[in-house]
Sequence to fold (808 residues):
Amino acid sequence: MTSERQPATERRTYEPFTPPRRVLLGPGPSPVEERILQAMAAPLLGHLDPVFLRCMDEIQELLRFVFETTNRVTIPISATGSAGMEAALVNPIEPGDEVVVCIHGVFGERMLDIVGRCGGRPTAVRAEWGTPIDPEQIRAALASCSKPKAVAIVHAETSTGVLQDLKGLSEMAHDHGALLIVDAVTSLGGHPVGVDRNGIDVCYSGTQKCLGAPPGLAPVTFSERALEVIRNRQTKVQSWYLDISMVEKYWGGERTYHHTAPISMNYALREALQIVYEEGLEARWARHQRNHRALVAGVEAMGLAMNVAPPDRLWSLNAVRVPDGVDDGRVRARLLSDDQIEIGGGLGPLKGKIWRIGLMGSGSARQNVRLVLDALQRALQAEGFDCASGVEAAERVYESGAAS
Amino acid sequence: MTSERQPATERRTYEPFTPPRRVLLGPGPSPVEERILQAMAAPLLGHLDPVFLRCMDEIQELLRFVFETTNRVTIPISATGSAGMEAALVNPIEPGDEVVVCIHGVFGERMLDIVGRCGGRPTAVRAEWGTPIDPEQIRAALASCSKPKAVAIVHAETSTGVLQDLKGLSEMAHDHGALLIVDAVTSLGGHPVGVDRNGIDVCYSGTQKCLGAPPGLAPVTFSERALEVIRNRQTKVQSWYLDISMVEKYWGGERTYHHTAPISMNYALREALQIVYEEGLEARWARHQRNHRALVAGVEAMGLAMNVAPPDRLWSLNAVRVPDGVDDGRVRARLLSDDQIEIGGGLGPLKGKIWRIGLMGSGSARQNVRLVLDALQRALQAEGFDCASGVEAAERVYESGAAS
Fold:
């Protein structure tokens, strides 16, 4: 405890910090390609340097590409994905505003918390953790409001591994004059998000999931409808740092100084987006789907069960039930120590009950599916849980895919 | 305009991004040493990986060292320095709270804006841009309040180059039951800040100034007195992302998940702090002072004038008056294009009237003083402003220092 409270005044020696090379198959950060790490190590530029301004323009173009949008205001917030959520909510919502908040995991709960901090009046729509939200309940919640400002929903619940179908939600929201706000932290770059096609008004993500960059920035996009709502606010946005009307002036044509952009993180994001662009969205989605299917086949061949019903499964984050009698934490610790593999545990009501295996960005790879299935089998056997190998079943998925 | 609005759907080609190597002598970011860039390019760890948790512990120890504090809650906020300001204000201040806000530049104005967004009732104490705040005015402002919650003041005004003396301010604030909140963005690591010695309750900084890391994190520290005020809040902190009572649980012994820490930025900060630690605070301050004195001698030998009176000058940020008839922007553009040197222009009422020459972190170096004096002379001559060389006068400062 003393060392935690004291400044480092005595001349202790700090050893060079050399992190081990992990295989990051948890809920994020996902593995970062060497090309991106090297981009981040490039010499710094000033945040108003003409060369950096060009870098910012390319980031905006490439973010529009991955979000599938023509929204003018499509930028990275200078903080992590959670700040993206906060930016998405504090900009449109004013005290007294009614907001339908859909909750089926940690991130829906967090939205509810933030709506409360904005002085919003939330109507919660809930589903059991591990299942998606029933759109009919959203319809009913909207009908129960007098003048709803927004519907907020998580597309990819990182805490449960559930993919939420977005179809029809924007019509529902727009029919009531409400905005559709979507959390795509764990889907953008791994699943189709289709901001324009799905009529999403505000969408945010993180860099450290399917985009494959380090954590530190939160891509966001605001539709013209959302910007109009923000322009008509009666009060100032409660966060100066996240006030999109100020942030967009730095990213837009005016280049007005707001805050010093995190230069190196933007280098990393630009490089990561270029990799997404080179691969192509459809190919990238297909890769995420294919590796997910192989993992599921392997997991089930091992005698384990997925926690989410087949149509609702994320490709990027796989929730596997911890078998009875197996110690969740000990298995994860063994994977980390013996195989350098990180997977995630469950949160909230799913704590100790599921593992969360992320296959995101460059981490979504045949080699990693093999690695984690193999390591999991050995770890389970060490726990006295006798199980078959899942590798062959996974390989069959790849071979059938290659043949089809 | 079209390219700005459109996603990158047509198959355009993105060239590899290779930023030029600038000499960053503006208001920040400052130059980042290769050792730090390489630290940032290390492989990612999960944000709950035991090895990363150790890295976090070292960062906290080293931050206590540079802040000169034993404050338990001494951590980097996962966003840039401006978010550090927001965190410093939104955590203690509740709607209706009286706050004395000292304003002598851009960053005091920003504090005022944020206090307003918190629902605080500010009493502004102003000084002309380029001069420090008169402590007697702070005393009078405190006396005019019924129950002031805080005094907020900028130690190092990046927009003007003014150093604010902090002596006596904490007694003044504490006598009224108010907290002392200090912006040390451009002083921490370059000037003594002395959080404990100066009785500062909340202090924040940025990584991209005298600490010499890239922008992206905001070191903050909260005294026990400040934490007590925060614990006694009647309302939730308006920002979920910056709520220190939640953030500290991730950085403290509990390691409760809050948001995904920006791993690579923390690697960079750790390395930068290790460099500060190896150099020693006193040696680092002396270096910043020495290079500042040499620059001033050079600037004055050239026939240019400093904009701030000698006792109030920052060592890290030097405000030099633009001579009559000289085009500010053209000179800066020439330094950038001909010499790869970035310096800053003035802001607000000082726009076009001063240059801001930063000598921060590793940028505070004899070689850079020579470079910028030489380049400035050539740029001014190209503008038709005939001036002598400043290099010799600067060198004399180093030689007298070496002799003394």
Observations:
- The mean pLDDT of chain B is 96.
- Residues 328 and 352 of chain B are 5 Å apart (CA to CA).
- The domain at 34-277 of chain B is CATH 3.40.640.10 (Aspartate Aminotransferase; domain 2).
- The radius of gyration of chain B is 22 Å.
